[in-house]
Protein backbone atom coordinates (compact mmCIF):
# COMPACT_ATOMS: atom_id res chain seq x y z
CA UNK A 1 0.00 0.00 0.00
CA UNK A 2 2.86 2.38 0.78
CA UNK A 3 4.33 1.68 -2.66
CA UNK A 4 1.04 2.63 -4.29
CA UNK A 5 0.89 5.85 -2.28
CA UNK A 6 4.47 6.69 -3.32
CA UNK A 7 3.61 6.17 -7.00
CA UNK A 8 0.52 8.37 -6.62
CA UNK A 9 2.56 11.08 -4.92
CA UNK A 10 5.19 11.00 -7.69
CA UNK A 11 2.50 11.36 -10.35
CA UNK A 12 0.94 14.21 -8.40
CA UNK A 13 4.29 15.97 -8.03
CA UNK A 14 4.98 15.52 -11.73
CA UNK A 15 1.79 17.37 -12.52
CA UNK A 16 2.30 19.98 -9.78
CA UNK A 17 4.43 22.08 -12.09
CA UNK A 18 1.51 22.40 -14.49
CA UNK A 19 -0.61 25.33 -13.43
CA UNK A 20 -4.37 25.08 -13.57
CA UNK A 21 -6.94 27.64 -12.56
CA UNK A 22 -10.48 26.96 -11.51
CA UNK A 23 -12.19 23.84 -10.39
CA UNK A 24 -14.25 21.24 -12.10
CA UNK A 25 -15.12 22.71 -15.47
CA UNK A 26 -17.63 22.12 -18.19
CA UNK A 27 -16.69 18.94 -20.04
CA UNK A 28 -16.28 20.89 -23.30
CA UNK A 29 -13.89 23.33 -21.60
CA UNK A 30 -11.84 20.56 -20.02
CA UNK A 31 -10.18 19.76 -23.35
CA UNK A 32 -8.13 16.73 -24.28
CA UNK A 33 -6.57 15.09 -21.27
CA UNK A 34 -4.11 12.99 -23.22
CA UNK A 35 -3.62 9.26 -22.97
CA UNK A 36 -3.49 8.95 -19.19
CA UNK A 37 -4.80 5.66 -17.87
CA UNK A 38 -6.02 4.99 -14.37
CA UNK A 39 -3.54 3.48 -11.95
CA UNK A 40 -4.25 -0.17 -11.14
CA UNK A 41 -6.15 -1.12 -8.03
CA UNK A 42 -3.90 -3.54 -6.16
CA UNK A 43 -6.71 -5.49 -4.55
CA UNK A 44 -10.38 -4.70 -4.99
CA UNK A 45 -11.66 -5.49 -1.52
CA UNK A 46 -14.36 -2.82 -1.41
CA UNK A 47 -17.22 -5.26 -1.99
CA UNK A 48 -16.13 -8.22 0.13
CA UNK A 49 -14.98 -9.12 3.59
CA UNK A 50 -13.73 -12.65 4.13
CA UNK A 51 -15.75 -13.85 1.15
CA UNK A 52 -19.08 -12.47 2.37
CA UNK A 53 -21.11 -9.90 0.48
CA UNK A 54 -22.01 -6.47 1.89
CA UNK A 55 -25.48 -7.54 3.05
CA UNK A 56 -24.09 -10.43 5.10
CA UNK A 57 -21.43 -8.26 6.70
CA UNK A 58 -23.88 -5.47 7.50
CA UNK A 59 -26.32 -7.78 9.24
CA UNK A 60 -23.79 -9.88 11.14
CA UNK A 61 -21.22 -7.33 12.29
CA UNK A 62 -23.07 -4.03 12.26
CA UNK A 63 -21.00 -2.53 9.43
CA UNK A 64 -22.90 0.44 7.96
CA UNK A 65 -24.61 -0.45 4.69
CA UNK A 66 -23.93 2.97 3.13
CA UNK A 67 -20.27 3.16 2.14
CA UNK A 68 -20.34 6.20 -0.16
CA UNK A 69 -20.83 9.87 0.57
CA UNK A 70 -21.32 12.48 -2.16
CA UNK A 71 -20.24 16.08 -2.62
CA UNK A 72 -21.49 19.20 -4.32
CA UNK A 73 -19.81 20.61 -7.43
CA UNK A 74 -16.23 21.71 -6.72
CA UNK A 75 -16.72 21.27 -2.93
CA UNK A 76 -15.25 19.06 -0.25
CA UNK A 77 -17.40 19.92 2.76
CA UNK A 78 -19.46 17.12 4.32
CA UNK A 79 -23.22 17.34 3.83
CA UNK A 80 -25.43 17.10 6.93
CA UNK A 81 -26.91 13.71 5.98
CA UNK A 82 -23.48 12.30 5.30
CA UNK A 83 -22.30 13.25 8.80
CA UNK A 84 -24.73 10.60 10.10
CA UNK A 85 -23.23 8.02 7.72
CA UNK A 86 -19.73 8.91 8.91
CA UNK A 87 -20.86 8.71 12.54
CA UNK A 88 -22.10 5.15 11.93
CA UNK A 89 -18.75 4.24 10.36
CA UNK A 90 -16.93 5.81 13.31
CA UNK A 91 -18.94 3.71 15.77
CA UNK A 92 -18.19 0.56 13.78
CA UNK A 93 -14.48 1.37 13.43
CA UNK A 94 -14.08 2.17 17.12
CA UNK A 95 -15.92 -0.91 18.35
CA UNK A 96 -14.09 -3.28 15.97
CA UNK A 97 -10.69 -1.55 15.76
CA UNK A 98 -11.27 -1.59 12.01
CA UNK A 99 -9.06 0.18 9.51
CA UNK A 100 -10.80 2.42 6.99
CA UNK A 101 -9.53 3.42 3.56
CA UNK A 102 -11.08 6.71 2.40
CA UNK A 103 -11.05 6.83 -1.40
CA UNK A 104 -11.65 10.30 -2.84
CA UNK A 105 -13.08 10.80 -6.33
CA UNK A 106 -14.00 13.71 -8.61
CA UNK A 107 -15.98 14.05 -11.81
CA UNK A 108 -14.26 14.42 -15.18
CA UNK A 109 -14.41 18.21 -15.30
CA UNK A 110 -11.22 20.07 -14.46
CA UNK A 111 -7.61 19.10 -14.99
CA UNK A 112 -6.24 15.73 -13.97
CA UNK A 113 -4.01 17.18 -11.24
CA UNK A 114 -6.81 19.38 -9.89
CA UNK A 115 -9.13 16.38 -9.63
CA UNK A 116 -6.51 14.31 -7.79
CA UNK A 117 -6.14 17.16 -5.30
CA UNK A 118 -9.92 17.57 -4.98
CA UNK A 119 -10.37 13.84 -4.38
CA UNK A 120 -7.73 14.02 -1.65
CA UNK A 121 -9.42 17.04 -0.04
CA UNK A 122 -12.73 15.17 -0.03
CA UNK A 123 -11.15 12.08 1.54
CA UNK A 124 -9.36 14.22 4.15
CA UNK A 125 -12.62 16.01 4.94
CA UNK A 126 -14.23 12.63 5.66
CA UNK A 127 -11.18 11.63 7.70
CA UNK A 128 -11.37 14.79 9.81
CA UNK A 129 -15.07 14.17 10.47
CA UNK A 130 -14.33 10.59 11.54
CA UNK A 131 -11.63 11.94 13.88
CA UNK A 132 -14.23 14.23 15.46
CA UNK A 133 -16.29 11.11 16.16
CA UNK A 134 -13.32 9.45 17.88
CA UNK A 135 -11.62 7.34 15.20
CA UNK A 136 -7.83 7.21 15.62
CA UNK A 137 -5.56 8.56 12.89
CA UNK A 138 -3.76 5.24 12.57
CA UNK A 139 -7.04 3.50 11.66
CA UNK A 140 -7.51 5.62 8.53
CA UNK A 141 -5.78 5.81 5.17
CA UNK A 142 -6.53 8.47 2.53
CA UNK A 143 -6.26 7.75 -1.18
CA UNK A 144 -7.33 9.87 -4.16
CA UNK A 145 -8.33 8.47 -7.52
CA UNK A 146 -9.35 11.87 -8.88
CA UNK A 147 -11.44 11.38 -12.00
CA UNK A 148 -9.86 8.06 -13.00
CA UNK A 149 -12.49 5.69 -11.54
CA UNK A 150 -15.97 6.98 -12.36
CA UNK A 151 -18.96 4.90 -11.27
CA UNK A 152 -20.99 6.45 -14.09
CA UNK A 153 -19.18 7.08 -17.39
CA UNK A 154 -21.82 9.57 -18.60
CA UNK A 155 -21.08 13.18 -19.47
CA UNK A 156 -23.98 14.95 -17.76
CA UNK A 157 -24.86 16.34 -14.34
CA UNK A 158 -26.46 13.11 -13.17
CA UNK A 159 -23.27 11.14 -13.90
CA UNK A 160 -21.00 13.83 -12.46
CA UNK A 161 -23.01 13.88 -9.21
CA UNK A 162 -22.48 10.14 -8.78
CA UNK A 163 -18.75 10.48 -9.44
CA UNK A 164 -18.15 13.25 -6.84
CA UNK A 165 -17.72 10.95 -3.85
CA UNK A 166 -15.69 9.34 -1.10
CA UNK A 167 -15.92 5.58 -0.73
CA UNK A 168 -15.25 4.02 2.67
CA UNK A 169 -13.53 0.66 2.34
CA UNK A 170 -12.45 -1.81 4.98
CA UNK A 171 -9.33 -3.54 3.68
CA UNK A 172 -8.59 -7.06 4.77
CA UNK A 173 -5.60 -7.39 7.03
| Low-pLDDT regions | 4-61
N- to C-terminal separation?
Answer: 12 Å
Strand order of the largest sheet: 1-4-2-3
CATH topology of the domain at 69-173: 60s Ribosomal Protein L30, Chain: A
The pLDDT mean sits at 77
Major pleated sheet: 4 strands, mixed
CATH architecture assignment name of the domain at 69-173: 2-Layer Sandwich
Radius of gyration: 16 Å
Describe the structure.
With 173 residues, this protein is α+β, with helices and mostly antiparallel strands. It has a domain of 105 residues: OmpA-like domain (60s Ribosomal Protein L30, Chain: A, 2-Layer Sandwich). It has 6 helices and 4 strands, in the order αααβαβαβαβ. Strands 1-4-2-3 form a 4-stranded mixed sheet. Strand 2, helix 5 and strand 3 form a beta-alpha-beta unit. Helix 4 crosses helix 5. The radius of gyration is 16 Å and the shape is elongated. The N and C termini lie close together (12 Å).
Keywords:
single chain, 6 helices, 4-stranded mixed beta sheet, 173 residues, 60s Ribosomal Protein L30, Chain: A, alpha+beta
Amino acid sequence: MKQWYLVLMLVTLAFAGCSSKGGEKNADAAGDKGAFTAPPVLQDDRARTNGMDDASVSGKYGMPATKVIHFDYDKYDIRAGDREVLQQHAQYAKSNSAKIRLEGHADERGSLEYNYALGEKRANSAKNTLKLFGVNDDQMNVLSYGETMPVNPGHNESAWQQNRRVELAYPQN
